[in-house]
Amino acid sequence: MSAIVEAIGVGRRYGPTVALADVSLTVAAGESHALVGRNGAGKSTLVSILTGLSKPDTGSVLFGGEPAPALGDREAWRTRVACVYQHSTVIPDLTVAENLFINRQPTRRGVISWPRLRRESRELLDSWGVAVDVDLPAGELSVEDRQLVEIARALSYGARFIVLDEPTAQLDSDAIGRLFSRMRELQDAGVTFLFISHHLQEVYEVCQAVTVLRDARHILTGPVEEVSRSRLVDAMTGETGGLTVVDAAGRERIGADTEDVLTAAGLSGDGFTDISFGLRRGEVVGIAGSNASGKHQVAETVYGLRAPTAGAVLVGGRPLPRGDVKAALRAGIGCVPRDRHHQGLVLGMSIADNTAMSILDRLGSGGLVAPRARAAVATKAIADHGIVASGPAQPADALSGGNQQKVVLARALASDPSVLVLINPTAGVDVKSKEALLGQVERIRAEGKAVLIVSDELDDLRPCDRVLVLRAGTLVAEHEAGWSVGDLVADIEGVVTDD
Ligand SMILES: Nc1ncnc2c1ncn2[C@@H]1O[C@H](COP(=O)(O)OP(=O)(O)OP(=O)(O)O)[C@@H](O)[C@H]1O
C-alpha cells in the first residue's frame, strides 16, 4: 500500500519541553490508523505538524512521497489534510452553507450567489450522505453533525486524509456507532483516517493499524490484530502488568442507616423533573443516561451552577441557596465541571493559580497569597495526579488536554470537599491516569466523603455503590454495584427486555 503521509524523524520542542523526539510515522492510503499514547505523549504536537499548523524543528513531512507545502500555503495544506478537533472550527453564527464555502463562495457577476451557495452545499452534503439542513446556524448543530460537516468540508477541498482528534469524546454510544459506520463508508470511498482516542476498544473496532507514542518518542507501529490490548497498554506506559479498575462490587455495602451527607429533594429544572436521592457518607453514586436524559443538568444543579425550579439540595440537613456555586463550595461541594474549557480552567493562568483558585481564602488573608504557598499546592497536585508539566508555573494552555483535566480534578480536591461532583471526569484522560483518578475516588470515599459521578463512560461508573438511571428527565432505575452492561444500557436506552 502506498503512503498517503509520512513523518520522517520529526522533532519539536517548546522551550525546555521536548514534545516530539525523532518520531517517524507512515500512514498507508485507505487505512484507519490509530495514534495512541498517554497524556502529554506528543500526539497533538504530531497532528499540528502533519496539518501544517506548526513546523518541526527537525525532520520532514511528505504527502504521497512529495514534500509538504510551505507552512504559510494554507490552500495547499487544505487539499492534502484536515483535522476535526474536539472543539468546533465552524463559525457558530454562520449557516452550515456559509461555513462550507467560507472564503470561496460561488459568485455571479462578482457578487455572492446565495441560491448557488445553498444548492452546492446541499449537493456536497448529499454526495457524502450527510443529512444536515444547510440553512441552520452552525452553532445549533449537534456535535455529531458538526463533525460530519467538518469532514465534508475537508473532502470538498480535495483532502483524502483526515485526522480525527478524540472524535468520540462528546458522543453517546449510538452516535459513536454511527460515526464508525460513516468512517467505514468513507474508507471504502478512498478516505484515510488518523484516529486519536483514549478508548482502546475503539482502536480495535475501527482501525487497522496503530502507532504508540510515549514520552515524545515513537514506540511501536503495527497492524491492530497483531498488537494485543495488554501489549498496547504496556507500550503506552512503559511498564508491564496492565490495569486494575476499581469496582464497587468488591467492597462491603454501605449500611442503610448511614447518614446522608447530601440530599437532593424533589429537584426539578431545565430538562428534569422531581429527582430525589441521597448521598451517604462513604458512598459513590453514579448517574447514567443519554445526553438528553438531563443527567448533566441534575449534577450542575447539585453543585449550584443551575437553580432548580422546584425542590432543594440539602447538605447536612440544611438547604443550599439555589444556583450559587460559591455557597455550594463553602458547604463542602467540590466539582469537576462538564466542560473544562469553559467552566473548568482559566487557560491563560498557571497550574499553580488554577489549582489554588478555590482555596485562596485558606492560603492567605485578604486575597494575598504567597506565591510559594500556591506553588506548594500545585507541586503536590502535579505529583498526586501525575501531571506532565515543566512545573507549577506552566500556563494551563501549554498543557496537553488530559493534563488540563487532571488540573481541574486537583482543584476540585484542593478544598478538601465532603461531597465531590464529577462530570465526565476522565474525558481525554489516558488509561493509566484514568485508573489513578478512579483510585482517588476510592480514597476519597474511604475517608467518609461522598462522590457523585455523572459520566458517559461505563468504566467511570464501576466504582459506584449504585447507579441511578435517568431517562427524559426522570429517574427510571437504580442498579447496585455489580450491574451488567447489558442491563444498564437497556435502561439508559429504554429498551424493553423480555425477562
Ligand atoms: N504551546 C505549548 N507550550 C509549551 N509546552 C507545550 C505546548 N504544547 C504542548 N506542550 C507540551 O508538549 C508535550 C506534548 O503535548 P501534546 O499536547 O502533544 O500531548 P498529547 O499526547 O496530545 O496529550 P493528551 O492526550 O493529553 O492530549 C506536553 O508535555 C505539553 O505540555
UniProtKB/TrEMBL annotation:
CDD domains: ABC_Carb_Monos_I, ABC_Carb_Monos_II. The lineage of its organism: Bacteria, Bacillati, Actinomycetota, Actinomycetes, Pseudonocardiales. Residues 5-240, 256-497 form the ABC transporter domain. It comes from the Bacteria. Keywords: ATP-binding, Nucleotide-binding, Repeat, Transport. The keyword Repeat applies. It comes from Actinophytocola oryzae. InterPro entries: AAA+_ATPase, ABC_carbohydrate_import_ATPase, ABC_transporter-like_ATP-bd, ABC_transporter-like_CS, P-loop_NTPase. One of its GO terms (molecular function) is ATP hydrolysis activity. The keyword Protease does not apply. This is Monosaccharide ABC transporter ATP-binding protein (CUT2 family).
